[in-house]
Sequence to fold (251 residues):
Amino acid sequence: MKVKKVLVSQPKPTSEKSPYYDIAEKYGVEIEFRPFIKVEGLSAKEFRQSKIAISDFTAIIFTARTAIDHFFRLCEEMRVNIPDTMKYFCTTESIALYLQKYIIYRKRKIFHGKTGKLEDLVPFLVKHNKEKFLYAISNVHKDDFSILDNHKINYTKAVMYRTVSNDFTPEEKFDYDMLLFFSPSGIDSLLKNFPEFKQNDIRIGSFGSTTAQAVRDAGLRLDIEAPSPKAPSMTAALELFLKEEAKCEQE
Fold:
């Protein structure tokens, strides 16, 4: 069965230059963007149940822009005054620059890594090991905290937002030939929305090893896996699959 309609379980690209649009035109497929999961912030009441007082901390670790949004939202809701002396440690420069949305960047002490990995931040954290760090995270996270423990960093994990299933409505059609997933939570959402889901001829693609494992653990067939040596991105993997499919049709 030829793939005609693909569901990408991510938000629609903000740029019209997305490779997905080029693929759709080149191979004559319809591509829809519809996240299976969504992020929602904890309320101030919920956060208070953690017994964490933000004002007790002198530095914050951010690994995502979403964490920044929910940190400042909670501070506003709880009327927490963030001192100018607060130090910010971010895993990438782009995350660090996102702080400009909430603070005067040039007047703050901000540090960032290069690759997005937590270990990149360790030299900065060790240098400032007298600080008391607040680590803003989601209820679902992949961070390995052992690296902080090994360097005796004084930190506290604070769940400020959570990942939940973005449920389908009865009116929404589910007539896709291919589903592309980017996190294990997406697989959980699929099975939550469609408990009687039968894969049959539907192709499933995944990005990342944990997502691929979640597909297999759910007893589903994995048809596309990225990254790989031939396909470093999901779009590259999708194009490779469609190219092979078109080649088989011609033979």
Summary: The chain has a mean pLDDT of 93. The first strand starts at residue 5 and ends at 8. The radius of gyration is 21 Å. The chain is about 30% helix and 20% strand.
